[in-house]
Structures are given as C-alpha cells and as structure tokens.
Amino acid sequence: MNDVSLFSRIGRRIRAWSRQHSYSFFSSLGVILKHKTGTLMTVLVLGIAMFLPLGLYVTLNNLDNVDLRQDEWSAVTVFFKPGIDGTEVRRVANELQQRFEPGSMTLISPEQGMADFRSASGFGDSLEILDENPLPWVMQVSPRSGSTDQLESRVAELTAYLDTVNSVELTQFDYKWLQRLGRLLDLGQAAVTLLVALFGLAVVVVVANTIRLDVASRAEEIEILALVGAGNAFVRQPFLYTGLWYGLMGGFIAVVLIALAMFYLGGPLGLLLETYGSAFNMRGLEGYHALWVLAGGALLGWFGAWIAVQRYLRKLRIGGRLGRS
Amino acid sequence: MIRFERVSKVYPGGSRALADVSFDIERGSMVFLTGHSGAGKSTLLRLVMMLERASRGNVFVNGLNLSEAPDRLAPIVRRNTGMIFQDHKLLKDKTVADNVALPLMIAGLKYADIRKRVRAALDKVGLLSKVSQMPLALSGGEQQRVGIARAIVSMPPLLLADEPTGNLDPNLSRELFALFEEVAAQGVTVLIASHDLDLIRRMHKRVLVLSAGRLADDIPARNIP
Ligand SMILES: Nc1ncnc2c1ncn2[C@@H]1O[C@H](COP(=O)(O)OP(=O)(O)OP(=O)(O)O)[C@@H](O)[C@H]1O
Ligand SMILES: [Mg+2]
Asked: Does the interface ipTM go beyond 0.90?
C-alpha cells in the first residue's frame, strides 16, 4: 500500500467519524428542543444544584478579601517600660519600620494617653491629684496586609522581635479573633469542597435519571440501530451529547444565578460592611471561573449520561433480547 | 460464505435449539431454511448475525469464525449482513428514506451519497414514490419492502430473512421471493427461513430442513422438479 492510499484511507475514516458525530450532535439537539418543558426543568434543577457550592465559594472569596483584618483590627499594642522617653521610642519605631515595613504605626505619648483616658473614662479633673503621669509610652503597629496566614506569621515575627527589645515591657495582641477568622475561612473552604462533591454527585444523578428515561423511551430505536450494525459508541453518542448539553446549560444557569444574587445582595451587604469601616468591593465570578463551571457542568452531564446509557447497553449484548419480537 | 461445523445451541434455560448441525452455503447462492415451529430456524439465523453464540462447534461467515470472534466484532458482522425481520423493525417516527438510510448513517457516508443510494434501493423494491412517507402509512407488504431496501442499501455480501412473508398474501410473497432471486443473481448470498412450502418448492432452490434442532434434510437445487 502506498502512502497516498493510506492517507486517503485515514482521511476517509476521519470524515466518516465526524459525520457520525454530527449526526449524534444534531439528533441530541433535536431531542432537547423537542421536550422544551422537560429540558427547562432539568436544566433549572442542575443550575440550582451548581449554584449552591458556587454561591458559598463566592461568599468566602469575598470574606477573605474584606479588609476586616486591617489597621486597628490586627494591631499589636506595645507597652514600653515606665520612664522610657520619646527618643528611645522613636528609635524602636525606626527600627521596626526598616525591619518589617508595617502597614501602620501610631505612637501614643504618656500625655496623649492621659488625655485620652480623661475624656474616655469621665474621671476628668479628679486625675489631677496624681502628681506624676503613671502611663508609659504606647505604640500600635499593624503588620503589612495579606492573607490570614500571612498576617499571623507577620504578627508572630513582630512580637518575637519586640520581646528582644529591652525598653519594651510587654506586647499585646488578640490572636484569637485572627485565628478564628482563619479557621472559619478554612471551615468554609472545606464546606465548599464538600458541597462541590455532593452537588456534583447530584448533577450526575439528575442527568443520569433524565437520560435513563430518554433511553427507555427510545428502546425500540436503539434496538433497531444495533440490529443494523451500530456499535455501542454510535448508540451512546447522541445521549452523551444530550447529557453534555444539560450540564452546559445547567452551568450557564448557575452563573446567571450568581450574577443575579450578587446584584440583589450587593447593596445590603455593602452597607453592612461599611459599618465595620471597611471599603468593600464585591467580587463576582471571574471569566475563567465561569468557564470552569461550564466545563465542569458539561463533564458531569456527559458522565451522568454515560452511566445511564452504559447500564442499558449491557442489555444489547450477544445472547440478549436483541432482535426478538 | 456460511459454514456450520457441528454446531449446537443450548439456551441458558436448557432448551436445545440446534444439535450437531453442519452445512456449507456457497457465495452468491439462494438457500431456503425450513422446518416446524421451534425447529431452530430463527436460532440458526441469529448465530449467523452474531446475536447468539454457539454452545459448541464453529460458525464461519465470510471466512470469519464467529464462535471465536470477540464481542466487539458483532456490529461489523451485522453491518456486513442485511437482515429482514418478520415484524419489519422500522422506526415509526422516521420517514421511509430515513429508515433506509440508517445503515449508511452508521457507516458514516456523505449525505449526498446516502441520498443517492437510498433512492436506488427504494427504486429496486418499487417504493420510490413513498420516499417521504411514514412507515405506518404503508401496507404490510410495502413495509416489508422498506425493510428489504434497508437490508440491501449498503450492498452487504449476505442477506438473511426470517419469515419475510409471514402475513403477506401469496401474490406479494411471490413478488418478494422474485426480488430475493434478483439480489442473489447479483452475487449476494441469500438465506431465507420460511414456512411457505408451496412457494419454496416453486423456487427450485436448495432447501435446508431442520427438525427438532437437527439438520433433517439438505435438498439440492437441481433435485426439485
Ligand atoms: N431465548 C430463548 N431462551 C430459551 N429457549 C429458546 C430461546 N429462543 C428459542 N428458544 C427455544 O429454542 C427452540 C428453537 O427456537 P427457534 O425460535 O429457533 O425456532 P423457529 O424454528 O424459529 O420456530 P418458529 O417457526 O416458531 O419461529 C425452541 O424450542 C424455543 O423454545
Ligand atoms: Mg422463528
């Protein structure tokens, strides 16, 4: 056999293959468009099933991004030893600036502290009886912003260093809330994983069940196809395409639902977060996220259809009921 | 074209449909298969189409030993075999043309070629005027002929028919057999299972007679007056 005939044979096989696929493709699209109501219901259920994990993911993504841990929220409070003067405090502040480039630093002199205390505590003039100001210099340092984990390690570095500085009496930091926020976000991530697995399974089951009914209603057609020489792949193809369409449309619905939810919840949520004093930019799905959702939906739909058809193809085996009246 | 070597078939339930059957059918010949109800005619055809596997012995079709061929070859065997069923096995929601086109769709032919070949096949069975009808709008005989058109459209080397004249009137049956004869004359091997002894006798072809799963008689073509 010469090369030309080999190539033309391969070319012919490929063309035959693509024609078979285009036949399946259009036949699957025909089925979907014929049963509009059924398709719509299936696709809505799939869309909602995909929306739930996706919604939680978007929520977490936003929470992780909120500036909750900025500034005073994550500030380390440094108390200097009594009698330490401003020169030493400013030296330490310079040192910190160079070593850690903190997000912000505030120095509070004993006088400033006393003034604040007076106005805040309501003791007012009664504090005049103290002939000496008992308050030390205080400094508030916020680490550079970053993820929860980064913040935690930056705070740790900062306090470790400050513990070696002689003029510092003690450092104070409320790790707990930062850790809590971190753990909560971790928990949320785990919940997203769980929901993705669970609702992914739901998508597969819903598609498998829908396709199973579709297959059963076309049992006669399948039998005839097999009798005139259709292989399993040819019988399977249109159903796989149908499953793929379902998944794809379900994914599209989910993405649209996310956009609607963002639009609907965006206003109230923004107002809520403003009370925490943080500028809040709501993040939706990125373009590549949406592509992932569509591809994932299509894949799950394809897989669900595959399961449904495969169960049925077993009945077409040699020695089965095929061809009997 | 078809060779049975000591073939037995016992169904899972334990009923013996064929016992030690051997014969050889030449390429391009037309052969009848007859016998009482339950004699094993349908079983024999099912073995040739790879719808069933022999319990013992070898079934050769076109040189391929079906008893040893893997399952995945079954579609290819069927693609090379035109089969005509008593109950037609037509798709009720597809036009006559679409039904006949099915084997060519599976083979992945070009639409233009499919159209041409479908028209040629329908012309051969005299149904060109019914191309775009639905099968249920046709008479029983016409439906049977659509089935024949579908069986010959891909020009397979082998044509099988199980009781093709089951509920047709004698005239139609005769026409149908004449059509099979024409197909055989073009080099296609034709094997027809039938009860219709009168008609079979008149065709002067070779006849295999089954009785309770055994090959009771093998009447050569020339011995029939
Ligand atoms: N799927 C099956 N399971 C068990 N036994 C079967 C099966 N199919 C056929 N048989 C038995 O095998 C024997 C031969 O059946 P077959 O259908 O081949 O006969 P036939 O010659 O075609 O009869 P008919 O003229 O009535 O169509 C019968 O006894 C039948 O009961
Ligand atoms: Mg029978």
From this structure: yes
Higher-confidence residue: B13 or A104?
A: B13
Task: Write the pLDDT tens digit of every residue in A145-180.
Answer: 777 778 778 888 888 898 888 888 888 887 777 777
Residues in chain B: 225
Taking only residues 186 to 225 of chain A, the set having a beta carbon closer than 8 angstroms to any beta carbon of chain B reads 220-221, 223-225
Dump pLDDT digits (tens) for B126-135. 999 999 999 9
B159 touches B151 (CB < 8 A):
yes
* Closest by Cα among B42, B32, B23 to B181: B32
Contact B98, B131 (CB under 8 A): no
Please name the member of B46, B91, B106 whose beta carbon is closest to the beta carbon of A221: B91
Inter-chain touch B106–A225, beta carbons under 8 Å: yes
Alpha-carbon distance A309 to nearest alpha carbon in chain B (angstroms): 17
B positions 154-193 inside 8 Å of A (CB): none
Closest Cα to atom 1 of ligand 1: B11
Beta carbons of B212 and B37 less than 8 angstroms apart: no
The structural domains of chain A, with segments of one domain joined by +, span: 25-67+181-319, 75-174
Cα B195 to middle of ligand 2, angstroms: 10
Q: Do A228 and B72 touch (CB under 8 A)?
A: no
**Residue B208, CB-side half-sphere exposure with 13 Å CA sphere:** 26
Q: Per-residue pLDDT for A271 more than 90?
A: no
Contact B205, B30 (CB under 8 A): yes
Question: Does residue B89 surpass a pLDDT of 90?
Answer: yes
Nearest to B107 among A16, A220, A226 (CB): A16
A75-174: CATH topology: Alpha-Beta Plaits (3.30.70)
> Model's pTM, two decimal places?
0.76
Neighbours of B205 (CB within 10 A): 21
A93 neighbors A105 (Cβ within 8 angstroms): yes
Residue with the smallest CA separation from ligand 1 atom 13 is B17
